[in-house]
Write a structure and sequence with these properties.
- 36% of the residues lie in helices and 23% in strands.
- With 206 residues, it is of the alpha/beta class.
- Strands 1, 2, 3, 4, 5, 6, 7 and 8 form an 8-stranded mixed β-sheet that branches.
């Protein structure tokens, strides 16, 4: 596990160093590609009242900007293992008292919601079955620090075969829907209708 995360951290540290606090710095092809993923993930949020969010694999905190454009009363904690990502986030959001960043899971406190965008896509050379076990462990961690719900996205196994890359992980949407339905809540949504090569799982907790 430590080896896996060390390699992934190095990959994204290079991305943020090369591209800065931009969509490319967190490996999204375009700003629109990043935004449409956020739009799916925040469907878990009931914004009618103040809320708190843990952003699992937050990068430089682009989701905090997305939330601030839509709601004013929220708190945001970005969790990322990359010091380079956190440094960019702190520089970008240092003036916003609603926003903080942590690099250790132990520093995450329960929030209303936890979301993960693109966090589990880059598996590098690791075996897909091994990576699936890792994803399930991380989803369990997300559930533990969420009181009202959580959401995450994955590249889909329904992607066009000729476009699939060996260094990326493609999850089975039905497997993850079933897993969350059986382990976390009866209220689970599978979103796979936004013209991307990924899907989003939304889990509403009792």
């Amino acid at each position: 596990m430590k080896e896996m995360l060390r390699d992934v951290e190095a990959y994204f540290a290079n991305k943020i160093k090369e591209h800065g606090a931009t969509h490319a710095g967190v490996d999204f092809a375009t700003p629109a590609a990043q935004t449409v993923r956020f739009e799916q993930l925040v469907k878990v949020i009931d914004g009618a009242e103040p809320f708190s969010v843990n952003d699992y694999g937050s990068g430089y905190g682009a989701l905090a900007e997305f939330l601030a454009a839509r709601w004013s009363e929220f708190t945001y904690c970005g969790f990322d293992i990359s010091e380079a990502m956190r440094s960019q986030g702190e520089a970008l959001h240092g003036g916003d008292a609603r926003v903080r960043f942590v690099g250790d899971r132990a520093d995450l406190i329960p929030a209303d919601y936890t979301v993960a965008s693109g966090t589990f896509n880059m598996k590098l050379d690791f075996d897909p079955a091994q990576w699936q076990r890792y994803v399930l462990e991380e989803v369990a961690q997300m559930a533990e620090v969420s009181t009202r719900g959580f959401a995450f996205n994955l590249l889909t196994s329904y992607s066009d075969p000729e476009r699939m890359r060996d260094d990326l992980y493609y999850g089975d949407p039905l497997f993850y829907f079933d897993h969350c339905k059986r382990h976390y809540s009866k209220n689970v949504a599978l979103l796979h209708d936004y013209n991307g090569y990924d899907f989003t799982i939304v889990v509403r907790l009792a």
